[in-house]
């Protein structure tokens, strides 16, 4: 967050934040992701859409090497963030994940207090020199996640006691607290009701100013609402990628058209 | 008729009922199975169930009740005066039972006619000698009231058994006939059998619970008996344990504190060994080990739990004790006098408890949702950070429960203590001294020629009761903790 936003609008002309080339993912013998090339723009929201099992979540998890925790998973090809290959032997996946945060499908706050949930990342990374700095990080993260007003009087209560929507925003605050550059969201609203979903979507739109966001979603309406760019996956292949408006109004590929018009998926 | 044959006959009736019920059902449907409400075997099972279950129920109840009825009848027959000085009705009744058994055996081996055994009134000296000659154990001269009581005891038992046989067989036959009578194509045998199975399963559960109750009651009665003979204050707060088997416990000092101290000291050493090792092993197995290592290591660790504790006791006596002695004994540091010590038993017991702690903790750690780990890894935490900050706190209640269960196991352990810790009841802080535990003392109080009327033997029940209360309390606390915090991460 120290670096100032260099350009106001993300466009195709700027250097991309994430650049994936010829990415293959195998689960044992299954070829789950085939030849995916994609450029993800900084300070924008990119949505991955596609039917279930199309590989969009799998691809998302390659971006912060979360697939490393699965034994049978193998990744080939190159994924560069800010020009640095994240699968290079020199890269520490633990450090990478501090830079590329993640929010999961189901809200998964730790069974700790709200404060400790947000302070978790800063503590393990030694980001605060003293208690008051840590307090500042926690407060500003909760503010950015739009949760501060709701929880400021009950920071000591367990994070698991909040509503689903609040829990998910707590998880976003937790991810923000380690100052990531990229935030990956794996169907962050699929376990939430419409009102909580609207709040999280609003939050995603605000976060776009400071972070590069990649969101996997089942809901095409959600992709249309929150994202600037959309990528459509089908059977492990990246079928089409472009500005959200183009994808939804003027898809080039027959499969994309069929999917967004609800003919399958 | 012996019990064995009675059971066999009831089973045979049930089997015949099964075949008959099945055949009758098929016949009532004109041989076409599809016209029956249920499969033919259900009709058979219904008949068999109705024949066997009530009959067995009556049998069990009869066997439980008959001794009580006979006992109360016979003890009414014994005149007050014949209960000697320093003796009790219980002892006289034991004498009666022995005499009756002696008569039974003498008749069975043909040394007495049944008639003689039933009606002999005259010469008790003669009967005593004849019983002794027949190789029966008769402790003293049989007196007239005892002989009378023994004779009616015999008669009551044999008539009781006869009636029991008749009633049980009648119940079996009546049940079978009832089952056969109601068998026809419309009868819902399947549903009836389902209900019957439910009842059978329920009674199995009931028996388990009632048995526990029975154990507790038997402990309670004997404990109360003990406290009538020995002051409770001296028992709970006495600092010395020195039972004297010679007198009637008059000179015995039966303070539980040295034994409780030994128990807790040894358990503490055992837990100090088992908890860290078991917990770390569980963390390794569930978080770090690959599937191959896990597939080998987990069963290997659990084999430890299958080793009989007497083998651990031998290990303590023959290996660990001498090993410790060579390090801390006279040739080493000089603080250990013999191989049997708190440390010896504690270390070995700790090894025994490792699989308990590790296996239970492993299950609990695995029950922590993967989402917790993902959340932590997603924030850039390493494995050990995730374990320390997320998984162990989330699993803590369960782990505490596992530790408490291991603790109650340690407190109840006997063989390792008997062989590894010595037999001296002692209040000492030195872990290299011999001490003993409550369980080991229960064994030594009850083995050998124990006279169950003296406090020296009855104290075993008070010890057992104390132990039972302590472990029960631990288990309740463990269950409470596990239950209270279980839903935390759901």
Automatic annotation (TrEMBL), chain A:
Keyword Disulfide bond included in the entry's annotation: no
Pfam families tied to this protein: ABC_tran
Keywords: ATP-binding, Nucleotide-binding, Phosphate transport, Transport
GO biological process: phosphate ion transmembrane transport
UniProt domain ABC transporter: residue ranges: 18-260
Gene Ontology molecular function: ATP binding; ATP hydrolysis activity; phosphate transmembrane transporter activity
InterPro entries: AAA+_ATPase (IPR003593), ABC_transporter-like_ATP-bd (IPR003439), ABC_transporter-like_CS (IPR017871), P-loop_NTPase (IPR027417), PstB-like (IPR005670)
Family of the protein in this entry: Belongs to the ABC transporter superfamily.
Name of the protein in question: Phosphate ABC transporter ATP-binding protein (PhoT family)
UniProtKB/TrEMBL annotation, chain B:
Chain segments annotated as transmembrane: 51-70, 162-180, 200-221, 256-283, 303-326, 338-357, 389-407, 452-482
Source superkingdom: Bacteria
Function: Part of the binding-protein-dependent transport system for phosphate; probably responsible for the translocation of the substrate across the membrane.
Keywords: Cell inner membrane, Cell membrane, Membrane, Phosphate transport, Transmembrane, Transmembrane helix, Transport
Alphabetized PANTHER family for the sequence: PHOSPHATE TRANSPORT SYSTEM PERMEASE, PHOSPHATE TRANSPORT SYSTEM PERMEASE PROTEIN
PROSITE patterns for the chain: ABC_TM1
Keyword match Transmembrane helix: yes
GO cellular component terms given for this protein: plasma membrane
Record flagged with keyword Transmembrane: yes
GO MF annotation: an example: phosphate transmembrane transporter activity
Protein name: Phosphate transport system permease protein
């Amino acid at each position: 967050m120290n670096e100032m936003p260099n350009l106001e609008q993300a466009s195709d002309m700027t250097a991309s934040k994430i650049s994936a080339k010829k990415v293959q993912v195998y689960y044992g013998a299954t070829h789950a992701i085939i030849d995916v090339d994609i450029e993800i723009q900084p300070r924008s929201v990119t949505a991955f859409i596609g039917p279930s099992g199309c590989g969009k979540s799998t691809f998302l998890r390659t971006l912060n090497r979360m697939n490393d925790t699965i034994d049978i998973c193998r990744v080939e090809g190159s994924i560069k963030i800010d020009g640095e290959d994240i699968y290079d032997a020199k890269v520490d996946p633990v450090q990478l994940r501090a830079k590329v945060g993640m929010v999961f499908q189901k809200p998964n706050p730790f069974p700790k207090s709200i404060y400790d949930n947000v302070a978790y990342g800063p503590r393990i990374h030694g980001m605060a020199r003293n208690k008051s700095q840590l307090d500042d990080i926690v407060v500003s993260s909760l503010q950015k996640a739009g949760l501060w007003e709701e929880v400021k009087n009950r920071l000591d209560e367990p994070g698991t006691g909040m509503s689903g929507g609040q829990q998910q925003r707590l998880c976003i605050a937790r991810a923000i607290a380690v100052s990531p550059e990229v935030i990956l969201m794996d169907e962050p609203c699929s376990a939430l009701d419409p009102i909580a979903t609207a709040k999280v979507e609003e939050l995603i739109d605000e976060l776009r100013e400071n972070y590069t966001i990649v969101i996997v979603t089942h809901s095409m309406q959600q992709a249309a609402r929150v994202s600037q760019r959309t990528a459509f996956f089908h059977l492990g292949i990246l079928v089409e990628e472009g500005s959200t408006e183009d994808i939804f109004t003027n898809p080039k590929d027959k499969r994309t058209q069929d999917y967004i018009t609800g003919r399958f998926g | 008729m012996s019990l064995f044959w009675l059971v066999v006959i009831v089973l045979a009736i049930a089997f015949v009922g099964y075949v008959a019920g099945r055949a009758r059902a098929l016949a009532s449907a004109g041989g076409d199975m599809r016209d029956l409400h249920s499969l033919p075997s259900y009709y058979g099972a219904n008949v068999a169930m109705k024949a066997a279950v009530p009959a067995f129920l009556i049998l069990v109840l009869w066997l439980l009740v008959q001794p009580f009825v006979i006992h109360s009848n016979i003890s009414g027959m014994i005149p007050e005066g014949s209960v000697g000085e320093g003796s009790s009705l219980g002892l006289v009744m034991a004498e009666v039972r022995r005499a009756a058994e002696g008569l039974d055996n003498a008749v069975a081996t043909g040394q007495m006619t049944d008639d003689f055994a039933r009606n002999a009134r005259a010469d008790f000296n003669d009967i005593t000698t004849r019983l002794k000659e027949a190789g029966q154990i008769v402790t003293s001269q049989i007196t007239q009231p005892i002989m009378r009581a023994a004779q009616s005891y015999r008669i009551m038992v044999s008539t009781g058994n006869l009636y029991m046989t008749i009633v049980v067989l009648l119940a079996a036959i009546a049940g079978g006939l009832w089952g056969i009578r109601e068998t026809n194509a419309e009868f819902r045998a399947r549903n009836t059998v389902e209900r019957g199975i439910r009842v059978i399963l329920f009674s199995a559960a009931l028996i388990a619970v009632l048995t526990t109750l029975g154990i507790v009651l038997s402990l309670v009665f004997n404990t109360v008996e003990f406290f009538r003979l020995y002051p409770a204050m001296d028992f709970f707060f006495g600092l010395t344990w020195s039972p004297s088997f010679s007198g009637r416990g008059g000179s015995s000092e039966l303070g539980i504190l040295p034994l409780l101290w030994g128990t807790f000291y040894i358990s503490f050493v055992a837990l100090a060994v088992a908890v860290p090792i078991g917990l770390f092993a569980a963390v390794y197995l569930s978080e770090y080990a690959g599937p191959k290592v896990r597939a080998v290591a987990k069963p290997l660790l659990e084999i430890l739990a299958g080793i009989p504790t007497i083998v651990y006791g031998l290990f303590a006596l023959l290996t660990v004790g001498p090993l410790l002695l060579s390090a801390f004994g006279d040739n080493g540091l000089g603080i250990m006098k013999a191989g049997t010590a708190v440390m010896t038993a504690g270390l070995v017991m700790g090894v025994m408890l490792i699989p308990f702690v590790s296996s239970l903790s492993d299950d609990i750690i695995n029950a922590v949702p993967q989402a917790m780990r993902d959340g932590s890894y997603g924030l850039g935490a390493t494995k050990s950070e995730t374990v320390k900050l997320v998984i162990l706190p989330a699993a803590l209640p369960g782990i505490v429960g596992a530790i408490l269960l291991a603790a109650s196991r340690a407190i109840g352990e006997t063989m390792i203590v008997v062989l590894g810790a010595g037999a001296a009841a002692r209040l000492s802080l030195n872990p290299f001294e011999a001490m003993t535990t409550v369980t080991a003392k229960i064994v030594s109080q009850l083995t050998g020629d124990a006279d169950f009327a003296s406090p020296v033997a009855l104290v075993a029940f008070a010890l057992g009761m104390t132990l039972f209360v302590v472990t029960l309390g631990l288990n309740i606390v463990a269950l409470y903790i596990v239950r209270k915090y279980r839903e935390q991460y759901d």
